[in-house]
Amino acid sequence: MQAMELTTRFRDRSFEGGAALLAYDEISLLGSLISDDIRKVLDARPNTMRIYILAPFFDVEAVKAALDKGTAAERAGGNAPGSPGELYYIGLKVNPGHKSQLVAYRYEAGERAEVAQAQLEDELMQGWLFDLFDRHKGRVDAPPGVHFGKGSGKHATQFLRVANVLLSSTACAVLATFALTKLQVGYARRVFVDTASLLPVALAMQRIALLNGIWEAAPPAQSFSSYGGMDKLPSLGRGDVALISASTSGGMVDRLKEKHLSTDNSVTFYFLETVGSNASVDSGVLCNLTYRPERTFGYPRIQNYSPPECVLCKQGMLLAELEGDQFLLEKRGTKRLRISKPSQPQDARDVMELLARQKLLHVPMYRAHSPRVAIGVDVPKLLGNADVKQGFQRLLKRFTPHPINFIVLVDVSEAVVRNLLQEAGLNGNCAETQILAADAISQIPVTPAASVLVVIGYLADHALLRGINAQLRTMVPGGCVSYLAALTAAESARNLSDLRSFLSYGERGADTFTCRSVLDVMLTPPDGQQSSWDHELALLRRMKSSGAIDPYWEMRIEELEEASQDALFLKGLSGDLAISPDFVYLKTESKIELISQADIYAVILNLLACARNDNVGFRASIPRDTQGVKWTQTVYGQVLLCPSNFRDYNDAVLRAAFLRAATTQELTFMVDAECSREVLEVLHAELASWGQGKGDSLPEFLMALATRRMRLTSPDLETFMTSLVAASVAPHLNQLAARIPK
Length: 742
Known about the structure:
Elements (H helix, E strand, L loop, with lengths): L3 E9 L2 E9 L7 H14 L3 E7 L5 H9 L3 H4 L10 E10 L3 E10 L2 E9 L2 H14 L3 E3 L4 E4 L5 E2 L1 E3 L8 H12 L9 E4 L5 H13 L9 E3 L16 E8 L3 H8 L7 E6 L13 E4 L22 H4 L3 E4 L11 E5 L8 H10 L5 E2 L13 E2 L1 H6 L1 H14 L6 E5 L3 H10 L10 E4 L13 E9 L2 H14 L4 E11 L2 H12 L9 E9 L9 H14 L5 H11 L35 H16 L24 E5 L2 H5 L3 H10 L11 H18 L7 H9 L7 H13 L4 H7 L5
Parallel strand pairs: 2-3, 3-4, 8-16, 11-12, 11-13, 13-14, 14-15, 17-25, 20-21, 20-22, 22-23, 23-24
Antiparallel strand pairs: 1-2, 4-5, 5-6, 7-10, 8-9, 18-19
């Protein structure tokens, strides 16, 4: 069996040459096998100046004997000092205090002679270990659009995976041999490894330590499952050994020290320094992967982020939580979110037609103000609509308990509710009724068998209603509760069904309480990330703070700070963006001028929500034992807004709405080269149209790029920026283009 070959470079003053390590795990070590492997090394790299032989499971006398029986020295070029193929073999030497060191012996036929520097150069060992790590892709780079959440709690786009290296008993033996030189323990009581993949290394270490007289007996070995199992780790003491696969912060060693582990009894196989960290490398590190100017190998420092301030999270990159050996093993798939006629069922069409043209809807532009609401609703106007008012009064007549002990108001005023009750002829039911706001519900005394009417104007915050329900169950045990809403927003048919089941279920089964709504609308709740307007305002403020900006941006900052609903989107050459008469998702035969930007944005949100649920609307029947199909980002797949949406719906206001309504992850086209190229074609078409007095959506595309909500592959972005620089666009757009990250 051929040796495992590792290579590195060494420097001796001004001289630099190659150094190869041939490692063996054989039942019997043959001189002819070693000779043949040396020949292959020199055939592939004739300028290899040093060749080292390591057979961890044989003592040095056996290695010397094998070399004597072969033609290794002749293969190596006669072993004349300074000639190619200078030959060494490596052994372990035990010093007082059970501290072992690696010793390199220059091979000379018939005798063994230690080199002048008996201890193997540490940089050679680290170079070989780096080669072992690098050739097996031990550094895992996250796919575009993804970053890792590591066991230490840090976030990064890279992760060190030593399991990739441990693919042979030879690799395990090499790591075990080198690791023994970092320990100073004569009696090993127990060996703990941070992941199960290191157990073969621990077993190899037992065998090698016994062979060389470093340990007196083979200690048991077990995994403590990294940070997740740290609390279950017993208190450590003298004789306990810890093997750590890899680290970028040294946090694992610190945690083990808290468990009373001696510093001399731990080994971290691989360490990569962190940007901005001044922490010194612990003496227990076997291989420091970090590049330094005097080195011939290494990686750049890794960038770690703390979760509250993680830049990657703020950019909308998917977080892949890693635990133990859980990892991405294949390229992520891509699904295209495409809007089509099935994305708007008839019930959704009816609701959007009823809500549009009345200034009922507004957009919560900033997440800090409305973290759980995708679209805001003017409830008094909504309940003033004749159709909605009639529908709500019908619900009151059908489901109001008699008599009413308490009325709880959620997003609706007392005056509006009293008027509705009066017009429904229910005043007689509430002569002694106590009316409370939702935040005063704790004032309700415990009243068994009481009746409660919960009136909701706009039910978008499901968590709020679940909290009210939990309180009422203890305040009115055995009572009757009706939840009646004018408008309910839910992200899917399953989500709406689950909410109603939760609010309705009680001690008498599924219909203990009542939950009804006049209108239902499908909307995906905000994802917790900042909105497009959050990003835009932050960018414009940075532009202003760094120098003079175009008057258009001054005006835009004022509009954003006022949260103007008439300026949701950036103006085009033709002024404010408005819908054209051929919009298929709202009737445009009459009163088209009354369709606001908020109405259009709400329609697009509704369409996207349905498309994310595989075009399954509220009226679809979903069995209780299935979860339905939902298009979401996962570690294994990316959902992207299909570029065909920009081609099929080429009104500037629709393109703007798509760019604002889609999530940052759905606009991360850099993860799919084909999607990125299709978006590039749209951008080029818009840029060409701008020069012809059209292309009104170009400002929105540029803002999406400048705020990094939309990202293309690097070649496509470079191509577009070249075209943009050569084109003639407005000065304020040039200022914005200068902010697009390269």
